[in-house]
Predict the 3D structure of the following.
Amino acid sequence: MVSLVGVNASGHEGWIRFYCIICHKKMLVGNEPIYYCPKCAQTRGAYFCLADYKKVKGKCPFCDTELQLYL
Ligand SMILES: [Zn+2]
Ligand SMILES: [Zn+2]
């Protein structure tokens, strides 16, 4: 019986993930901070990585709403 199970079993993609709308980086929830616009996240997928969150100064570039941290 194999007792060692890999932490990241390949093929397991059950995590919620988003793509940064600016740099298209893949982001995993729980892995890193993910910011989103409460107005544009649903309609246009306005999610932001930390680097781009800083670049847009915490405001949505589409509607100027303050970005929220996705929990
Ligand atoms: Zn980004
Ligand atoms: Zn927005």
Notes: Residues 50-55 form the longest helix (6 residues). The radius of gyration is 15 Å. The beta strands are 17-19, 26-28, 35-36, 47-48, 68-69.
